[in-house]
Prior knowledge:
Layout: E1 6-7, E2 37-39, E3 44-48, E4 54-58, H1 59-65, E5 70-77, E6 82-88, E7 100-104, E8 107-110, E9 118-121, H2 122-128, E10 133-140, E11 145-151, E12 163-165, E13 170-173, E14 181-184, H3 185-191, E15 196-203, E16 208-214, E17 226-230, E18 233-236, E19 244-247, H4 248-254, E20 259-266, E21 271-277
Antiparallel strand pairs: 1-6, 2-3, 3-4, 5-6, 7-8, 8-9, 10-11, 12-13, 13-14, 15-16, 17-18, 18-19, 20-21
Amino acid sequence: MKRTLTTIIACLALSSCWPWWSSDPGTDWCACDYGDTTCSGYDWLGSCEDDCSFTYHDCTALCRDAGFGRSAGCGYDSSSGGYACLCTDDTECDCIAEEATCWDFDTLLTCDDGCFWSAYDCDDLCRASGWDTSTGCAHDFAAGEDTCFCEDYEDCVCSAGEVECDGAFGLASCDDGCYWYSYDCDALCEDAGYEYSTGCGWDSSAGEDTCFCESSSDCDCSWGEVECWDHDSIASCDDDCYWYVYDCDALCMDAGYDYTTGCAYDWDAGEDTCFCESY
Length: 279
């Protein structure tokens, strides 16, 4: 079936249009650039307004207001170089009655009128059916069709807002109020403007696990540095930021010696070290 799609470039209320050809107002702190467009689900177009946030518009309504027969969904339009509502006067059907397919992880398309797709949010469908939340849209092999999978919160493994360390350098967060999602601490710290993470642990001030972040300017030492802490201890900059103190007796025994004669400068190695002896 061949169809001709026409991109709707229509003005909205308050003289807002897309694509916008006006210059960027210079809001480099914004979550989006003025004039950017994006699709949300099958039939919703988001436009970045001058308050630095996306406003979403129903493509079906916009296409009808512009005089087209119907919307063919939201998608990328190569002629304008951005996302747009794709409108058409084509009356040929896209689907058959009772057909259903996943548009994305959170959206189910159903052929309600036996001709055109209708888009539904899986969370909305699950709640309307008495469930607490959706775990996403996927193929149901038992039913032989795509569907939204639903869960009740008693089936969940965590609650909204919970966080816990996932290993030494990972943080798990209960983003959807039901399941754990794991994040790398280094990536989280870099996103927050730091250079790296020193690991995940309990933050007594916040009362929860967190990723601890650092930048080089906050550090006490550099990678590879060692120095005598006192006569019987040596400090090493193991993580390229902080001193870690070790007992010389323990280090010597680990190396196969019986005891230490103390920590001092080793002229041959050119650095402080623990001197070891055997009986």
